[in-house]
Amino acid sequence: MAKRKNILPGFNLSLGFTIFYLSLIVLIPLSAAFIKTTELSMPEFWEVITAPRVVASYKLTFGASFIAAIINAVFGLLTAWVLVRYPFPGKKFIDALVDLPFALPTAVAGIALTAVYSGNGWIGSWLEPLGIKVAFTPIGVIVALTFIGLPFVVRTVQPVLEDLEAETEEAAASLGANRWQTFTKIIFPAIWPALLTGFALAFARAIGEYGSVIFIAGNMPMVSEITPLIIITKLEQYDYAGATAVAVVMLVISFLLLFAINGLQWWSNRHSSAAR
Prior knowledge:
By secondary structure, the protein is an all-alpha fold. It contains 13 helices and no strands. The two termini are 32 Å apart.
């Protein structure tokens, strides 16, 4: 059988440019981090990455990122549902507002969140009498990471909801399914892969966030200090090998977590295709 040619030729050249671009932007910088870390012996490397202050920052960074991604998965789905299914005054404004974290500089977002959630802020002044302190605590980190991650879930789920045909839901209702059954059996399986993708994107974005967090976190060692700040601190102290060692750990853990999430998404897509 003759090999079918592409309508638009140039695959080899395009692939070459793609690999060159990815190598220049992604692979070479990441390789440099691993190479710089080799200046440390294995005992020195282990001492750097397992220091109590660094371990505490791991727990806060990954824990807060995971919690923020879960919150965004729930409320991002709700937001996308409202924007797709219901007409209401100001809908276009709300839809545009979702993208604000994309356009807003992260430092500005951090300052704004700190002003709102501090003890004398609009919201913080109501929460602190109840014993809930947000600014300069791990809760503030979660708030900042939730703020910057919401658009990833909304913009990933929204197109899928728009493509769902209302006739399918009407057919389920005509067969006796209630609203909850229609959502769990018809709607949710269709949007689950997109929701998982949005969760992964929000989680990955939160892990590396720096600008919006440093203002509201308070940066107290062992309490509210994130790992990116540890890396910046080591760089300011000219401890480049120590900084890259912590960065390599972050890179490896992030890759493993994203690999697991993508594997789960692949399994979900395959299971959904088999069910059809």
